[in-house]
Amino acid sequence: MSAIVSLRGVSKVFPVQGGKLQGSKRTQRAEPVRAVDDVTLDVEEGTVVGIVGYSGAGKSTLVRLLNGLERPTQGQVFVKGQDISSLPEGELRRVRAGIGMIFQQFNLLKSRTVFGNVAYPLKVAGWPKDKIKPRVDELLEFVGIADKAGTYPRRLSGGQQQRVGIARALANAPDILLADEATSALDPETTRDVLRLLRRINKELGTTVVVITHEMHVVREICDTVVMMESGRVVETGPTYTVFADPQSASTQRFVSTAVHGTPEPDTVTRLSAAHPGQLVSIGISEAAPTPLVAATFERHGVGSSVVFGGVTEIQNKILGTLTYELTGSDAAIDAALADLGDVTAVERQIPTAARAERAVPHLPVPANAGE
Ligand SMILES: Nc1ncnc2c1ncn2[C@@H]1O[C@H](COP(=O)(O)OP(=O)(O)OP(=O)(O)O)[C@@H](O)[C@H]1O
């Protein structure tokens, strides 16, 4: 694999307008905004990459640097081997023609039909009229809205509008498709359809897709690689499964917890332990510790087990999640089984808060007149 886009030590600093902020008594000098801060990154050709981070992390600025809409203050941006950081505007336009882009609010031309919207970039690129119609028909067919060619955007659902946006972005057969929060305005089912379409574009057309999102389920569904941003910096990057299974930074851990099952909250533990008298233990389920291995370990030690909480999900065709089991059997057998499992995965005993507090209180000698 080779990198289709590379960033080398890229920073983007926005000067503050006017240079000064008015304080109540004194004039304060405001700091310039370091939107992207010394980012070095490779986007491998033919992959789907997710750029993730909270609002203000610098994701949109990073993407605007990728397609030359912003010039770096420092560092270099290479697209297909060419340093675009200092290209004149005319040449940048040519580079941009090879990069499609879709947006959260679709950005369609309201006064043009679906056909007109998709035909637009072809006209701008100087396609002859007789070639435009078959190309637009082919694109609308590909994204599944051939029957809407004569419809105006306002008559379409959000999902259909995004399909038009995708068809338009694909018109000039780009090698790279940038999707900036492209599903954030859509309901969950429509989001799934659009993500499936993006996956298909990647698989069937070989297009490299860069997805900007703050939603980890989007990453979980389609991304091969995750790039986690915080305060303009890349704080973590890696294959999606690795990042989900073993997130390193605190913010990645927070993001991941929104899209994979974790351990129960304290009040849930209290409720579960009232309903289940056995020992409650949460076990990390992964490639290293799939459910059959966990079940076999309990069986080998003569421990009874049933799942009472949690779930598993599939990421890059591999299983990941956390299951909380109620275990029954002798303490020694349970300890031995958990010791075995502890060698391969995360094991956490779940003790209700009240019982925890009780255990923490030292056993004081009971005064002779207690209870009187
Ligand atoms: N043109 C600009 N001028 C000044 N500051 C800017 C400009 N563009 C972005 N910023 C600032 O740079 C930082 C990063 O913004 P950016 O939009 O890249 O973040 P983001 O992660 O995409 O956030 P969001 O998810 O809200 O879009 C923010 O503090 C933002 O206010």
UniProtKB/TrEMBL annotation:
One of its GO terms (biological process) is amino acid transport. It comes from the Bacteria. GO terms for cellular component: plasma membrane. InterPro entries: AAA+_ATPase (IPR003593), ABC_transporter-like_ATP-bd (IPR003439), ABC_transporter-like_CS (IPR017871), ACT-like_dom_sf (IPR045865), MetN_ABC (IPR041701), MetN_ABC_transporter-like (IPR050086), NIL_domain (IPR018449), P-loop_NTPase (IPR027417). The keyword Ligase does not apply. SMART domains: AAA, NIL. This is ABC transporter, ATP-binding protein. It comes from Paenarthrobacter aurescens (strain TC1).
